[in-house]
Design a protein that fits this description.
- The protein is mainly α and 116 residues long.
- The chain is 59% helix and 9% strand.
- α3 packs across α4.
- The longest helix is centred in the last third of the chain and has 29 residues.
- The N and C termini lie far apart (62 Å).
Length: 116
């Protein structure tokens, strides 16, 4: 199929998905390091350790280590399985990002003050 035909097919898929209330396919899905799946879920959706490992394309052991390092919030057990709400995970990540931004600004300010 040529580029024009492929673009037309992708547009038709996007339109059909939008009409069905589904997320349209995106070029972001193919980019390494982009985890759109988590952002596409409603904040109240419950995600298990196994589900989170799938979203991040990592092992469950890696998810456990990320929790220990504070990169992810602590889970709660639900029916014997570690689980979170999507909203709790996203809030935790946003708080960490904001703290890093504040630290970076503070460091830049200190460097500026100490520079001749």
């Amino acid at each position: 199929m040529n580029d024009e035909g492929q673009k037309t097919e992708e547009m038709q898929e996007s339109t059909a998905a939008a009409e069905a209330g589904e997320a349209a396919p995106s070029e972001l899905d193919d980019l390494p390091g982009v985890w759109r799946e988590l952002g596409d879920l409603p904040p109240g959706a419950i995600i298990t350790e196994q589900g989170l490992a799938r979203v991040f394309r990592r092992s469950q052991a890696t998810i456990k280590r990320a929790v220990r390092r504070g990169e992810l919030p602590p889970s709660t057990r639900l029916l014997g399985v570690p689980a979170w709400t999507v909203g709790a995970i996203l809030r935790h990540i946003e708080v960490r990002l904001e703290a890093e931004q504040r630290d970076a600004k503070r460091t830049k300010r200190r460097i500026t003050e100490l520079s001749p």
